[in-house]
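Q: For a teaching handout, I want to show students what a protein-ligand complex looks like in token form. Below are the inputs, and the small molecule is uridine-5'-diphosphate-xylopyranose. Please produce the holo structure.
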Amino acid sequence: MKPKDALHIIVIGSGYVGLTTGLALSYLGHRVTCVDKNPEIISKLRQWQSPIYETGLEELLKEQSGRIEFADSINSRITEADIAIVAVGTPSKENGDTDLSYVEEAARSIGASMAPDQFLLVVNKSTVPIGTARRVKTVLTEELTKRGVCCHFSVASNPEFLREGAALHDTFFPDRIVVGADEIESVNLLRQMYAPILEQTFIPPKKVVRAERYGFPPLVITSPTSAELIKYTANAYLAMKISFINEFAGIAERVGADIREVARGIGLDNRIGPHFLNAGVGWGGSCFPKDVRSIIYTGAQYGYDMPLVKAALDVNTRQRKTVIEKLQATLKVIRGRTIGVLGLAFKANTDDIRESPAIDVIAGLLEMGARVKVYDPVAMDNYRRFYSRPEVIFVGSVVQAAAEADALVLLTDWDEFRHVDWKETASSMKGNVFIDGRNLLPKDEMTRFGFTYLGIGC
Ligand code: UDX
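A: Here is the structure, written as tokens, with uridine-5'-diphosphate-xylopyranose included.
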């Protein structure tokens, strides 16, 4: 990228989305400052250590050392910026509504520091309810009016679609880039920011591989409201697709079919597609549960019922119970049993445990009087910090989780679990039940090793 095209970008919020976006934009040649009000995060980043576990992120951070800045407030930096990207948290409230206080706080701090002669494009990247672009505009205007200054700014919506664990890959090689803006100037500025990605003119960083058949991502230009709704529609659809296959996993079990064969059989239909058809213990994470609840809430605010999305949520709640039901069906009495839980993260390649099925399964097992040993390759610290119950026993390997256990339950699709010596592991257990909540392991082989193996829908 030519230096004349480089923009000065402030990213507010240095979590999964903000940090990944900031680092990628810095790698592509822009001048980037990542801001976070959590001093622990900033102190780590200043030592070029990643505060989160994410493929390739720490390597890229080290590579960018000296080229990207980290700060605990936006202050004077905003006066030099062309673009401020808001990537702060938007947690769920109890009633499913979205807590926008961090977004509003970011907007206020921008308004409090902008220079009078400046033009700034404020970009909402956080997943935010419909109408938030307009709300941010109002908050900024209020703040500027308070100061008695007149600045030029515009607000655009640019939702992210990155998956944790593949966040850098999805940032450099997105399926599409959605820009929701009312003015052509905002679209052009974001086109300039994303030019290296739109034109694929960069050499990918280490550990981020451009697929051979990857072409150029389309730029989808919409109104801010449509962009906001695109994000919710995408996540609700994907969540519904998983719930759909999970619902059919239940019927497959009852009629003696194998849901993996069924998923392949339907996924080859181009109109359906093969992705997001892995049956399992259900979806979790920082996005699907929150966004699904949020769009149901929005529907209700407009007096509009959303039965399909509600059903996706209900099926997901039911799905989390299947593991315990299968344990009951095989072990009969749970009280006094030792159960080894393999995997705490909501999916593989992340240390994120937010809304992870493991939280519910472990709580259910403890309530039923089981002794629970848990192992996860990277998420144990997070679980300990946020959800741990004193009864949970943390162990350092699959072998330790299995020792003297009556049953093992696999809840995260970690690749490490594919490479375990399961024959040896089976012989160290007291019982032989194996519930594979992700359909990760080959049923025939596991049965040959002596396990009573139960998958989900197979
Ligand atoms: C998701 C969206 O994919 C991403 O576009 C958005 O920006 C954020 O939310 P993420 O939460 O990182 O990303 O995880 P994703 O890979 O989508 O998986 C979500 C959940 O669905 C996980 O719990 C995963 O285990 C589960 N899942 C996924 C299945 O159970 N079956 C599948 O076939 C796919």
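A: Two things your students might notice: The longest strand covers residues 119-124. Residues 224-255 form the longest helix (32 residues).
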